[in-house]
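U., I forgot to send this yesterday:
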Amino acid sequence: MLIKRAHRIINQLLLDCLESMADLAERSATMIMPGRTHGQHAVPITFGLKVATWIDDFLRGHDRLRRGVQPCLRVMMAGAVGSFGSLGSVGPRVQQRVAEKLRLDPMPVPSRALLSPQSAYISDLALVAASAGRIAIEIETGMQTEFGEVSEPVPEGSVGSSTMPHKRNPKLCADVLDLSAQVRALAPEAVGAVIHPHEADGGATAKLETTMANALIAMGDMLMRLKIVLRGLELFPDRMRRNLELSGNMIGSEAVMLALGEEIGRDEAHRIVYEIAMQAIRTDEDDFEELLIDDERVAGALSAPQIRELLDPTKHVGLSPRIARDAAHRAREAVAGR
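Result:
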């Protein structure tokens, strides 16, 4: 019954986070920024696409928790070893009636040996906590001075740093990361409690009850903080755009390579564009565009206007805006209970 009450709170916090994510995805659906892989500029995306991945993770996590909690919400009235030895043939009816009164379900096999439902639910909590940790570290990284693309809110009355007035430290995100680690660390303990001898083991049961309580409390604390971060997240699109320009127009190299590949073959196009990009880097050359235009191998297949258009990052965010808006719609459906 305590799990049921706690799950209701956690479920609402998850939905609150999803609602804030939907707002973020819609607000930033066309907010262009550099996509990054392995810490390097990849191709342009929009911030809304990043948020769409958060939504997708949380939607699946919400579904896992919704299904995973049900086997935990069951009544066991079959006695110490699960045989209905005391109640006999009326035992299943007694268990059914108790379950109805408590608005729970009866255990199909009413045994205290079966601890895997609670273990699975804690593991599901750990996965959602990991998803929350990914969001927190994305925001914390985006707050670094060198990025400056986002900022968690600073609650009234708090300060960014105890000694340096100019700072806005990611305090809430740091809390989310810490609490996420606490929940994730409980999953192995929960799985380990499943392994015990005979029809019941007091040590395993006590361990699982403590693990469940700790997981639910930390999860609630974590989601409350994440909810505050998502609702008040500040976005700095001008800084995103300036960061996009750090790699110059080389962030459009893939678009040029693909267009050139249609004319001379992909492998050869990749080799040529790679050579030109490395030349631009070695010579500190700002104008990757001019090097492409001046290269006879490229100029024979693509005109200067074509190259300039291919290097325009706003033309190469793909379906980022649509994916962001579709994810926001799915999040709103989940919040509405559809």
